[in-house]
Amino acid sequence: MRDTFSRILYQAAKADPKIGIVVADISPAGSMRQFREEFPERFVNVGVAEQAMIGLAAGMAMRGMKPFAYTIATFALYRPFEQIRVDLCYQNLPVTVVGIGGGVIYSVLGGTHHAQEDIAVMSALPNMSILAPCDPLETEAATWACARHPGPMYLRLGKAGEPVLTANAPEPFQFGRVRCIKPGAGICVLSYGVVTKMALDLAVKIERSQGGQVAAYSVHTLKPLDREGLARILTSYDRVIVLEEHSSVGGLGQQVKALAFDSGARCRLHAFSLRDEFIHVYGPHADLLQAHGLQADLIHGKIFP
């Protein structure tokens, strides 16, 4: 995802001279080399100064540019939260905050690097939109959407090595619209971001144990949430499963449950998320997800005991 974002941002910058990027000392922005070398006047590395990153991006936007602010998700959001709220959202400026390693992808680095409540935090801000693509192809489409968006955006990305999941999706990517990426009937799984791969694995396990074909949807736009599309899903399937790499508080699961209540949906609804706690497990990403209860076999056993 990281390399795909860099490649598409470079293409967008070639097409639009207003696009620039401000980074905060990330790795040190190695994947941005082509952008940095060809457009040095539109590339700024502020170092470990995330508040300055957001403030500078806001100033660029006020001068007519469409800047991206790019670093590890926890540092992109939490340290400069006041600047995001006041400089970007209050003034409704066209700045995209790019968070690398959403969820608990930086598993070995501990809670300081885990963005497990980022969707809830960003959703609370007026004017903020949120995109969380599930694979490199959706990242490509999401980056173009951010480059054209007229207001503040949070783009939640993985890190590297994510598989392509949507090459054969029956529906196209559309900002603000839930997207079917695997057709099915009776049961469906809703997910977003990197953990969508687990959602698809879960769908296969259910098909093997229960028969039939399980549908899967990418809810890549978390705000504005496609309430109409989700309401249709809740009335079209007998069982709906929400799987997300985010805290149980303020994520997609809570919103879908509220929508199901408001719409009078009669489907069986299951929601699986990160626990509302810091779990001190240090190792591969999959190990930390499993410690939170996010593992296809564990989830299948809870749905079909």
Structure notes:
The protein contains twelve helices and twelve strands. The chain has 305 residues and is an alpha/beta fold. It folds into two domains: 2-157, Rossmann fold (3-Layer(aba) Sandwich); 179-303, Rossmann fold (3-Layer(aba) Sandwich). It has a seven-stranded mixed beta sheet, with helices on both faces. Strand 8, helix 8 and strand 9 (215-218) form a beta-alpha-beta unit. Helix 3 runs parallel beside helix 5 (81-89), helix 8 crosses helix 12 (296-303) and helix 9 crosses helix 10. It is globular and about 55 Å long. The protein starts with a helix and ends with a helix. The mean pLDDT is 96.
What would the keywords be for this entry?
single chain; 305 residues; alpha/beta; Rossmann fold; 2 domains; 7-stranded mixed sheet; 5-stranded mixed sheet; 12 helices; 12 strands; globular
Write the layout of secondary structure elements.
Elements: H1 2-15, E1 19-23, H2 33-38, E2 43-45, H3 50-62, E3 66-72, H4 73-77, H5 81-89, E4 96-100, H6 118-123, E5 129-131, H7 136-148, E6 153-157, E7 179-182, E8 187-191, H8 196-210, E9 215-218, E10 221-223, H9 227-236, E11 239-247, H10 252-263, E12 268-274, H11 285-291, H12 296-303
Parallel strand pairs: 1-2, 1-3, 3-4, 4-6, 5-6, 8-9, 8-11, 11-12
Antiparallel strand pairs: 5-10, 7-9
Helix pairs in contact: 1-7, 3-5, 8-12, 9-10
